[in-house]
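Record 1 of the preview.
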Amino acid sequence: MKLLLGGKRSGKTTKLIRLSAATEAVLVVSSHVVVGSILDSAKYLGLSIPKPITFHALVHSTKIESAPNGYLIDDLYACMQSVSPSPVQGISICSEAFELSIDVSV
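->
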């Protein structure tokens, strides 16, 4: 699994869009507004991607079909916050499960 680490506007989402286009993995995002933004960005980049879904839909819907090529989660903090009634104060991640990518230049 890849972990993209970088500041705001550093290219993390663009990298995930490119990965989605290459692998056909479904992007998971925090809101329907972000779904539209991702689709617009993919179109601008000339890339075809599966339709993104919201984190809420992934967690709560019984109608979501499995993604044979997996999921790419964009902005884990925003996704977690989108389903939490209270502020998310921290997130832990097992480092052995990830391939860390700090340089996300596209």
